[in-house]
Amino acid sequence: MLELKNLTVHYGHKRVVHDVSLTLAPGQMLGLAGESGSGKSTVAMSVLRLLPKTARVEGEVLLDGEDVRTMSWGRLRAVRWASASIVFQGAMHSLNPVRRVGEQIAEPMRLHSTPGSVAELLEQVELPREKARAYPHELSGGQKQRVMIAMALACGPRLVIADEPTTALDVVVQAQVLAVLTRLVAEQDLGLLMISHDLSVLAQTCEDLAVMQGGELVERGRTHEVIANPRHPHTAALTAAFPVIGAPQHRWTEPAPAPQPLLRVRDLVVDYGRTRAVDGVDLTIGRGEIVALVGQSGSGKTTLARTIMGLRKPSSGRVIFDGAEVAAKGRALKAFRRQVQLVLQDPSSALNPRHRVFDAVAEGLRVHGVDGDHEALVTAAVERAELRPASLYLDALPHELSGGQQQRVVIAGALVLQPRLLVADEPVASLDASVRGEVVALLLRLRAELGLASLLITHDLGLAWQIADRVAVMHQGKIVEQGPVEQVLLTPSHDYTRALLRAVPQV
Amino acid sequence: MRLAGRIGGAALSLLMVAVLGFFLFRVVPGDPVVSMTRGRPTTEALQAELRAQFGLDRPLHEQFWSYFTSLLQGDLGTSFTFRRPVSEVILERLGPTVLLVGTATLIAVLLGLWLGVRAAWRRDSAFDRVTTGVSLTLWAVPTFWLGMLLMMVTGDLFPSRGMRDTDTPPDFLSQALDVGHHLVLPSVTLVAVVCAEYALVMRSSLLEEMHAPYLTTARAKGLRDDLVRRRHAVPNAVLPAITLVFLRFGLVVAGAITTETVFSWPGLGLLFYDALTGPDYFLLQGLLVVTAGAVVVMNLLADVLHGVLDPRVKVV
Fold this sequence. Notes:
The complex is a heterodimer of chains A (507) and B (316).
Chain A: E1 2-11, E2 14-24, E3 29-33, H1 40-47, E4 55-63, E5 66-67, H2 73-79, E6 84-87, H3 101-111, H4 118-124, H5 141-153, E7 159-163, H6 171-187, E8 191-196, H7 199-205, E9 208-213, E10 216-222, H8 223-228, H9 233-241, E11 261-272, E12 275-286, E13 290-294, H10 301-308, E14 316-321, E15 324-325, H11 330-339, E16 340-343, H12 347-350, H13 357-367, H14 374-384, H15 403-415, E17 421-425, H16 433-450, E18 453-458, H17 461-467, E19 470-475, E20 478-484, H18 485-490, H19 495-503
Parallel strand pairs in A: 3-8, 3-9, 6-7, 7-8, 13-18, 13-19, 16-17, 17-18
Antiparallel strand pairs in A: 1-2, 1-4, 4-5, 9-10, 11-12, 11-14, 14-15, 19-20
Helix pairs in contact in A: 3-5, 4-5, 5-6, 6-19, 13-14, 13-15, 14-15, 15-16
Chain B: H1 2-26, H2 32-36, H3 44-53, H4 60-72, H5 86-121, H6 126-140, H7 143-154, H8 172-209, H9 213-220, H10 225-247, H11 249-263, H12 268-277, H13 281-309
Helix pairs in contact in B: 1-4, 1-13, 5-6, 5-8, 5-10, 5-11, 5-13, 6-8, 7-8, 7-11, 8-10, 8-11, 9-10, 10-13, 11-12, 12-13
C-alpha cells in the first residue's frame, strides 16, 4: 500500500534522509523510531508531499502503486486525506485556534465529498458529540488528540500516519489515546505508520519496528525481536535509555538512611479562585534527598512546586525551610530563593535566546548581588554541569547548543548560586533518549558531590525509579501515597498509583 | 466583568480628555476677544463687556467648573467666532468629515489588508517588494506634502478645493457626482497615509502564521492553496490587524485634520484649524471632546470586536 524506495531528501546541501526504503501493507502497524533530527518526520511529510519547497526529494514514494512525487497538483489534493491522512501532534498547534473542531473535522469530508457525520466520528474516538461546537482551547490535550484522530479518519483513508501522536500527554491520557487509535486502526483494517521518539510507546502498539538515525534506516524487523536482540548499537542505546520500573539495572541510586529534614511542607492549601489546586499537602525533603512528585497534568504538582519556591502565596499551611518559616516577602524571601533553584522542562524556552551562556548563568549572581569573581564562579558552575571546558561554551548563544547542552546551561544557572534544593520540573521530558540518561546521571552526581537535594516533578515514573529516594503521588491536589521508591512503585497501596503504573508503556 | 472594566476605563479616558481640553487650549497664544473684534474699533469697555459675556473675566477654576458642569449636561458652550452653540456648529460639519473619513477608512482597510495578505503569501516576490517599499515610503511622507503633491500632479483633473461647485444642478444625482468628484483627492491622500500601515501590519501578522502547524494540517487535508489561506491563515492573522484598524483611528483623525485643511474640505478638521486661529476656546474644547470621544469609543470597540472574533478571548 505504501512503498518508499530509496527515499533521499536534501535541504540545500544538507542531507536529512538518506536512501530509506520501507513498505507497509494494509492492516499493518509499523513503528518508526528515532531521535530529533533523525529524519523520521521528514519521511512522514514526504508521503503526502508536504515538505517545504526548499526540500529536494529523490527516490520513489508509492502510494497504492502511484508515485506521489510525480502526481499533478489536482491528483495530489485528491489523494491527500482520502488515501492517507496524518495525526499530527495536535495537543500543540495543529488545530486552527479560531475555528470550531466540528467544522475542522467536517472540512475534509466536504472537500472530498465523503458521506458521514461528525457526531459519529466523535463517538468513535469516545468524545461526546457536543464537543463538535468547542474551540481547540476549550479542550484538554487528550481531547484535542482525539479530535485529530477523528479528523484523520473522516475520509476513510487506508493509511494513517501518526507523527508523535502522544508526546506532551501524560501517561494515563497517553494510554487512553493509544488505545483509541489502535482500536480504530484494527477495526477498520487500516495501515498505520507511527512515528515516535519513545520506543516504549511503539513497542506497545506496533508489530513491526524501524529505527532511524542521522537520516538513515539502521534497523528494521518484528518489534519484539528488534527490542530483544538489537543488531545496531543505536537501537540498543534507545532500548536501554527507557528505564524499566522494577529492573535493578535501571535503579541508579541506593536507598539512604532517612536524612535530617531540609524542607517541610505542612498542611498546605492553595486556591485558585474557587478551585482548590493543592489540598492539604504534607511533604518533607531531607538534606541531599531526591524526592519525586508524580501525577498527571492538572494534579496540582506544579502549583505545589511554585508555592514551595515562594512564587505563590499559600491560602493556608506552612512551608518550613531549614527550621525557619519561609518569609512571604522582602529580603528574607530573596535569601530563601537563592537557596532553592528551579530547572524547567524546556530549556529552549527557559533560556533567553539573545543571552550568551555566560550572561544566562551569571544573571542569578547579579540578581542576588553576589560579590566575587563572577567569571570564576560561572566557569565553575558550567563545568559542574559538565560542559567542559567551559571556555568553549561561555560565548555561545542557546541556538548553537543541542537540547542536552541547553539543559546543562539551565542547571549551571541554578548551581552558580550554590543552592541547597533544586526544584526540577520535568527536567528530561523534552530531551532525546540518549541525552536523557546523561542529564539524569548529572543530577545524581550533583547530589553525591554537593549534597544537593532535589524535588523532581514528573509524570515519568521511570525517571522516579531511576534516581529518586522517595516518591509522592499527587492526585487532585492531594498526596495520595508517599514513601520509598521501591515500596510505592513495586507494592503500591493506593488505586491511583496502581492506575498510573498500569498506564506506563513498557519496552 | 471584563467588559464593564473596559467601559469604566473608557469613561475615565473621556473624563481626562474633558479636563485636558479645557486647560490645553488656554495655553494657546492669542486673545479670543481681540481676534473677535479685529478690524473694528473697540473700546476697553466693550472688550470688558465681551469678556464678561463669555465669562472670561472670572477666575480659571470657576470657568472650568461652569464648563465642566455644562459639559455633563451636554452643553458645549457658545462659539466666539460663529456666535452659535458649539454643538450646532460641530453637527453641521460632521457630515463631510464622516463622509471623508468613512470612505478613506473603508478603502484603506480593504486595500491594506488585501495588499498585506498578498505580499505575505508570496513573500519576497516582486509584488511583495513593491508593496512593502511603497508602503514604507507613504508611511514616512507628511500628509500635507502628499496632498499638495497630488494636487500638482493631477492638475485640473480633480477639483482641489471644497466639497461641491456652486453651479451644479440641484438634483440628487448631479450633486452626488459632484461631491464624489471633489472627494477623490482628499480621500486618496488619506488612504495613502493609513493604508500603508494596515498593509505592513497585515503582512507581518500573516508572516508569523505562515509556519503554523495547523496550516500543514489544512494542506494535508487536500485544501487548495488559496483555501488554506482564506479559511485558515487569514482568519488567524487578521485578528491583530483588525484591532489595529480600530486602535489607529486617532491616526485617521489626525490625518483628516491635515487633509481637510489642505483641500479646504468643509469638515471638522478644517473647523479645528480655523478655531485654533481664534483661539475659539469653546469650539476647540467641543471639537476635542467629540474627536477624542470617537477615538476612545473606537478603542473600546476594538476590544469588544477582538473578543467576538477570537474565541480565546472572553468578553463578558
